[in-house]
Amino acid sequence: MKNHTTDKSNKMVKTMLATILLLGSSFYSKAQLNTFQNMYFQNKYIYNPAMAGLSKGLDFNVGYRQQWSSFEGTPKTALLTADIQATDKVGLGLNVVNEEAGLLKSTRVMATYAYHLKLEGDNQHLSFGLSLGVNGTRVDYSNINGDGSDPEIDQYNQLKPYLDSDFGAAYSSNNLYVGAALPNMKTTFFKSANDRFDADRLLFVGIASYKIPVGDDQAFKLEPLVGLRIVKGHSDIIDAGANFNMDKYGLFFQTIYHSSQSLGFGLGMNQQTFGFNISYNIETGALRTYTNGTFEVGVKLKVFNR
Predict the structure, then answer these.
(1) Model's pTM, two decimal places?
(2) Residue-level pLDDT at 166
């Protein structure tokens, strides 16, 4: 009788753990679909390796994003990027992302090499970039309420971090930007990566934007943007928005709509040596029942700006 009760208890614990993992994965998947809003206008290096070290000096960017919800273990993402113009043609960068959702923790560390070919006039560049690094996801034992020795969890955590790479290309000038990237290339080209519990991996990002001067002194610029994201296991996502930049004051305001049924608003300051941004993303689809949206904040510091 005692063994029967113990077996029943263990079965219930396993069922609860499986349910928590599935819930965590669903929120984690949604977090993958809603990327950092700062990547669209202010820090394109977040998604495109080709943009590392395009401008002079050393840029540090720190970002944090959290979903506001009544659920425990909702997604949190921390970001650090650093990139420098090593020479007139070479840029180097470091891109670190740490994500938490439920019991899952994911860390990605990528080093970047970018080559910038300067074209004639209008600050035109044709850029290419390649990032190499490691990517790993684990179950956090400290957050488990139950039998942490479950063999299925232990088996998952035995998966080692794997090598990954990103490739990007871009054309940029004073007003026009057209860029595309192939992130998570191991997931794209190697079937063995599909065995991992990494849902909704981003496979392609393409973005185009154009700055339109407003006013006779061109102190203001309106920058419409359109983008396409291809996500494994999900419908393609179209992004459309605009950034209103007040160059004279170093301020900007922006809004972006995602066809994954969310709408983002943001504002911030972008000075010569520092900047910051805040944004809020509202879910317009079915998930709005479970979340109050996503809040994002970021800080930028530029040094050695010769």
Answers:
(1) 0.83
(2) 97
